[in-house]
Amino acid sequence: MYELANSTHFHFSVQGLDTSAKLQVLSFEGLEAISSNYAVEITLVCDHLRFDSMQLLSKSAFLSFDGDRSTGIHGEIQQVRRGAVGKHYALFKVILTPRLTHLKKRVNQKVFRQQSVPEIIKAVLAD
Questions:
Q1: Which terminus of the chain, N or C, has less C-beta within 10 A?
Q2: Domain of life, per the record (predicted)?
Q3: Number of other CB atoms surrounding residue 69 within 10 Å
Q4: Which of 67, 58, 69, 45 is nearest to 17 (CA)?
Q5: Rounded to the nearest 5 degrees, what angle is found at the Cα of 7, between the Cα atoms of 68 and 51?
Q6: Within 10 Å of residue 96's Cβ, how many Cβ atoms?
Q7: What is the reported pLDDT for 19?
Q8: What is the assigned CATH class of domain 11-102?
Q9: What residues does 94 pair with on adjacent strands?
Q10: Residue 1 pLDDT > 50
């Protein structure tokens, strides 16, 4: 029910990440609106200085808000930036978005010449 003050409240897990490096959530900031995709920028601290941050890109991830890891945000890592590197830790910023965000990249253009509107509609619906 109550967590200790010195325990981690937020957890970040990446599917298929094979590493001994421990990723801890330092902070996160999200943006969500009606009729648009959410985006959450998560600042991570890693205790492995030579951690290859590019292995995070395009992986499924989960940011949990509670200790039992049942409530949180599922998504895909769209962007990774390496931050400051200290003596024992390195900072990373990742952007977590829904997997459906990739559909925005799809462009489908066709030119219909010398066809009537019903013919165009029939051709579009057939695709």
A1: N
A2: Bacteria
A3: 13
A4: 58
A5: 90
A6: 23
A7: 64
A8: mainly beta
A9: 42, 80
A10: no
pLDDT digit string, tens, across residues 61-95:
999 887 676 788 999 999 999 888 888 888 999 99
Beta bridge partners of 63: 12, 73
Contact status, residue 25 vs residue 63, Cβ threshold 8 Å: yes
Please report where in the chains the tokens 């990739």 appear, as a residue. Answer: 102
Longest dimension (CA), the chain: 72
HSE, CB side, 13 Å, CA atoms: give it for residue 104: 9
Phi, psi of 73 (to 5 degrees): -120, 125
- Count of CA atoms in the C-beta half-sphere (13 A) of 36: 8
Amino acid at 63: L
Q: Are 63 and 12 in contact (CB under 8 A)?
A: yes
Res. 124: pLDDT tops 60: yes
Parse the chain into domains and list their residue ranges: 11-102
Tokens of 74: 């599922």
